[in-house]
Prior knowledge:
- The chain crosses the membrane at residues 18-37, 222-244, 265-289, 301-323, 335-354, 392-413.
- InterPro entries: ABC-2_transporter_component, ABC2_TM.
- It is found in: Cell membrane.
- Strand 1 (55-60), helix 4 (67-77) and strand 2 (82-83) form a beta-alpha-beta unit.
- 66% of the residues lie in helices and 4% in strands.
- The longest helix has 33 residues, at 257-289.
- With 434 residues, it is mostly helical.
- A four-stranded mixed β-sheet has the order 2-1-3-4, covered by helices on one side.
- It has helices at 2-12, 15-32, 34-41, 67-77, 90-98, 112-122, 139-165, 171-187, 203-221, 223-239, 244-252, 257-289, 299-324, 330-347, 359-366, 369-380, 389-419; strands at residues 55-60, 82-83, 104-108, 130-133.
- It folds into two domains: 2-44 and 202-424, no CATH class; 55-187, Rossmann fold, CATH 3.40.50.
Amino acid sequence: MSTFRTCWRVLFAQRTMILVYIVYLSLMMFGLSWSIIQNLSNTDNSTTYETLRPEVAVVDRNGGVGSGFSDSLRKFLSKDCDLVDVGTTSQDLQTAAASNYADLIVIIPEHYVDDLAAAFTSDSAVPELQMVTSFTGAYGSLAKLQVEDFLNLTRMTALADAASSGSSVSVASLNAAAGSVIADLTGNADAYPQIAIAEDPAGTDDREANGRYAFQTMMDMGAYPMVAAMFTITAMTMGSFSGARVRRRMYASPQRTGSMLFQQFACCGLFGVLVSLFYLALALALPVAAGLPITGVDPRGFLLCALTMVAYSLTAAASGFMVSMIAVNSAAINAIANVYGLVIMFTSGMAFPVDLMPKVMIVIGKCTPGWWFCRSISAAMNSEGTVSVSNWFPGIALVLLFGVAFIALGLALSQMRRLRPNLAAPASTQLAEV
């Protein structure tokens, strides 16, 4: 156990690598999936309908005694529209129309109210308002319908008042009719009913499915940081025992070399299990932080995902063990770890959907443990919420076989180093001190 404790101290001496690969890299990768989780969380499940309000400008060129008509029109439109000011000059109106500043511009021409009253009295053609509709959306057209509704209501009210009083329609009666329309609608609770959305019985299931998919996405996102972190930390930790002086002392120790290597790898493997628990906690915490329920995550599926992550961490540590037997420097270890991790990232299906990947990338991905890690996660946490152990087991078995192959190659390299005599010799002449 002395080798295990020594290896543990050496491992935690790699504080910079732990900070970069375990904390920073994992948070960066999981941060990339945060936008996906937020989109899933923002899926509309409300029970009230909130429509977008078009922006409408009312330009009154009639003025004078007809100002009451324009004021009533503004009040009528303000219920469902946002009123904006675009100016009154021709240049202002042209600029507003060209820049799409408002969805609808309503221009009340000069003497419009007088001409409208005369048309009602003589049954002549009704004058029209000048309206400019935005060309980028349909909100202006919908607001135009509201203007026409106001004109129809004002017309019917003015004609009804004129018929009851036996008088003709005048400018004053039109202003009064427009004000009466606003007063009647303001006091009527049913004039502007709220649109309610019936609660979808499957809404809860949809939220649970989104939470389950978010958890699966987070687990897949752990493929790259896990292999990069465990590869680097294991290789550098076990590489610390590969120095010539350290190896001579280890070979002179009464302990068997295999036992010491096992304790070193066990230390790194235990650290990998702790990192796996850290990733599992993040995979659960981020969907909860986004407001998604995790009740859709099947406990059996979660257990299989945990086993998959632990097995993958051990395989990543095994790959680092294999490289540590070559005795390369830290710069080479970092380079190999990042290249290896990026290959897994772009060929395992975590960065791109498998349907969009070319066959060459799929073939390369199947030659790495990352591909089978993602397939095992998909089998344990599929879109229907069911757990397929039969589809999960082959993937996790291949992940472990990759680990066994890495360890076997590492042991073979270690045996070759012990058989080479120059490995036991000092790298330079050491002068004895008297």
